[in-house]
Design brief:
InterPro entries: AB_hydrolase_fold (IPR029058). It comes from Arcobacter aquimarinus. By secondary structure, this protein is α/β, with parallel strands linked by helices. The chain has one domain: 3-Layer(aba) Sandwich (Rossmann fold). 37% of the residues lie in helices and 14% in strands. It contains six helices and five strands; from the N terminus they run ββαβααααβαβ. Helix 6 links the parallel strand 4 and strand 5. The two termini are 19 Å apart.
Amino acid sequence: MTSKNFFSGFCFFNESELFNEYLITNDFTISGFSYGAIKAFEEALNSKNRVDRLQLFSPAFFQNFDEKFKRAQLHYFKKDENIYVENFLKNVIYPKEIDISKYFKVGTAQELEELLFYEWSEEKLQKLVDKGTIIEVYLGEKDKIIDSLKVKEFFKNFATTYYIKNKGHLL
């Protein structure tokens, strides 16, 4: 079952069941994985409805990378989307060995650019906390997509962060 309050990651759809171990599904919780964490955050921030909890699973966080890195990612995606996505998905599932083909959808260059250049804002995080929303961030120690230690450090003043040993981007 897919939660109406779950936002999917880049090149993913309907993958919420992968997070069942951690996922809270109710009318007052919004969740998102990777690229979907950005969407979930913005939804929670701008929602006129009650949001008690925001769950961010391996949030796409690239503001610790320079412009050159981000432009290179876009270049390689545009040059050969299939090879880029194949390598990306290998890194997403690491260290697991699971078939994620039923959750796959082709991502776009626009989505990739959005997630690479998104700037998480401490001011916006504080605004959400001030609204009474509990923020939870779930990070894998072996994540090959984001620098989970940098992400943990960034969110520590605004969220409960779970740093999970021997887990990757998919936790």
